[in-house]
């Protein structure tokens, strides 16, 4: 109740059994949400902090979450269990909505599988689905940490996309920003127009001087 950003907290032992949970549910229900258990078991196996995949299940009150897990060591220094935390993604989507981006821009956060964790705009339409940006998915499949591409979206708007790995999440999540090409290149096109106008003026002056000299 004190930490509303988490939909559930609990402990899983080395056998994959849920020992305790902040959510008042049966062990059968908890163990049915394998993303929680898998993240915990991976933390036990690796002995390191683990970022799991996207999940929305009974153990997380049906909310869209990302699971984190950390190993628990016994007195002998052995990895005996793991504590997990299911982080509610609502705050992440609220944060994305507050970003000061140009009109018709998109901001997307995905997990390592390309599943959308946060999306602005139209959060409800996209969260939990596969990211529609093909370059982002191709970059994930090639394990590219960052990349850029210009793509026409399903709304027929050409956008300049850039994505990068979120190192704070252990590289298990990526953020992508898509800005309409018209907006992204507006400043450079303005400079180009000014430069071309200056060149045209210079050319006209040269021709005038040449004519006058002749």
Description:
By secondary structure, this protein is an alpha+beta fold. 33% of the residues lie in helices and 33% in strands. It has seven helices and ten strands. The strands form two sheets. A five-stranded antiparallel sheet has the order 2-1-5-4-3. A five-stranded antiparallel sheet has the order 7-6-10-9-8. The longest helix has 28 residues.
How are the SSEs ordered, and which strands pair?
Layout: E1 6-13, E2 18-21, H1 27-32, H2 34-46, E3 50-55, E4 65-73, E5 79-88, H3 90-97, E6 106-111, E7 116-120, H4 123-126, H5 134-141, E8 146-152, E9 158-165, E10 173-180, H6 181-184, H7 186-213
Antiparallel strand pairs: 1-2, 1-5, 3-4, 4-5, 6-7, 6-10, 8-9, 9-10
Structure summarized in a few sentences:
This protein is an alpha+beta fold and 214 residues long.
């Amino acid at each position: 109740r004190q930490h509303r950003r988490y939909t559930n907290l609990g402990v899983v032992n080395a056998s994959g059994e849920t020992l305790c949970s902040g959510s008042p549910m049966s062990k059968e229900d908890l163990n049915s949400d394998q993303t929680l258990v898998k993240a915990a078991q991976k933390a036990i196996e690796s002995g390191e902090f683990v970022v799991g995949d996207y999940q929305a299940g009974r153990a997380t009150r049906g909310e869209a979450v990302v699971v984190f897990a950390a190993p628990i060591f016994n007195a002998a220094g052995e990895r005996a269990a793991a504590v997990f935390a299911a982080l509610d993604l609502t705050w992440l989507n609220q944060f994305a909505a507050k970003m000061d981006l140009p009109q018709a821009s998109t901001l997307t956060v995905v997990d390592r599988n390309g599943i959308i964790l946060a999306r602005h705009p139209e959060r409800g339409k996209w969260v939990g689905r596969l990211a529609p940006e093909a370059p982002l998915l191709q970059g994930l499949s090639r394990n590219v940490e960052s990349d850029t591409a210009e793509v026409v979206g399903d709304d027929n708007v050409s956008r300049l996309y850039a994505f990068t790995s979120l190192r704070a999440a252990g590289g298990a999540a990526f953020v992508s920003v898509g800005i309409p090409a018209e907006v992204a290149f507006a400043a450079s096109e303005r400079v180009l127009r000014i430069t071309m106008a200056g060149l045209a003026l210079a050319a006209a002056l040269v021709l005038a001087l040449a004519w006058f000299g002749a």
